[in-house]
Amino acid sequence: MKTRKFTRRQVIAxxxxxxxxxxxxxxxxxxxxxxxxxxxxxxxxxxxxxxxxWSDWPFWDRSAEPGIxxxxxxGRWWRGEGxxxxxxxxxxxxxxxxxxxxxxxxxxxxxxxAMEALGVDAGDEVLISPYTFIAxxxxxxxxxxxxxxxxxxxxxxxxxxxxxxxKITDRTVAIIPVHIYGLPxxxxxxxxxxxxxxxxxxxxxxxxxxxxxxxxKTGTLGDLGCFSFQNSKHLPAGEGGAILSMDEALVxxxxxxxxxGRPRGTMKPGPGYPYRGRNYRMQQSQxxxxxxxxxxxxxxxxxxxxxxxxxxxxxxxxxxxxxxxPANGATxxxxxxxxxxxxxEEFNNIPxxxxxxxxxxxxxxxxxxxxxxxxxxxxxxxxxSRGYKRLFSEARLRQWREQNNLPGNDQLCDQAVTLYQSxxxxxxxxxxxxxxxxxxxxxxxxxxxx
Length: 450
Ligand SMILES: Cc1ncc(COP(=O)(O)O)c(C=O)c1O
Hints:
By secondary structure, the chain is α/β, with parallel strands linked by helices. It is 37% helix and 13% strand. The chain has 15 helices and 15 strands.
């Protein structure tokens, strides 16, 4: 399959010289307040900027129906007897440029398997990005290991590679960078710290299907890369996941772990069950849905990218709105969410939550990104549990609490605003509505009550 590439040079051109506007032969419809029906914010009873609907998600592909029906009628519903999971693994590895792929039940199970295959065990420490979906934390807890947070760079929304080394201890075994929202992490920097300290690298690419770092797909750059195909994702199947690697033997190990310990390939067989394992298998029906959804992901990603670059260029002209800055080496983002930062001081100190409410009232569905989860109840629940108190000394847990101070991530959580991926499937006129709604809120900020 061919992907229309936007090189870093094009990305820079797009954001600085109106490249996309001319490329798409489209001119911006500017917003005006004076003497129009737009002189009152929608939250204060005025007319909203965007009146139409937004794109639904996901899209069903009717052409997949005969194959799915045939599979159900055949009774070959599980991967043990079925061909479709294996076909999906082959095609996904090809699409992503990986040597090998293992399909799994979910993104969470992919992360759990990947950690087990790379030797993460009870009492170990794993360095992770705090700005992520909670499943990344939970999969570390599943191994009774300690998640140790590396602070975020608010400009990139990602783990700050310069902050990794200070968090390494003699218990650290792995790093989990998260390509959150499909924004590629600076993987050369992560890999070089990992090599220096003998650590494994698991990419949480659960939101980063076909994102690129220095022209290579995210999820193929560490030891193992994990993906989610949950319903909201760009490649949806209700539930589902995958692990990618350039190391086939490592994927054989993942296979055994995900299939009750049954060996295959380079894993030595019997007697009996030679390995511990679980059941984290993908079903045939999931694979068939994924094979049909794969037909559209590249085209959808092109539309998302084009609209995201257009928004970047327009939104940065509004005081107090800062689009995300690509990390070093990031060549293609895929925008599971489109993120920007809101600087309230430029909006009459109106809190972010109120700004989002006003934006929603203008017909633009927006949310506030992830909270400061490193301070959430699940952390103390784990640390005060019998198991963790056995595995980690009181002194280490005290030190962990003292170090759980992440100013970069706090700033990011305070400022982040996000738009869901299907909004980026809209037209250029829809993108203008987003820009005009934010411009309107900025112009009429004095009429907004905190
Ligand atoms: C960053 C990240 N990690 C892990 C997961 C877990 O994936 P799943 O929901 O398929 O278990 C998700 C899913 O939303 C995710 O976004």
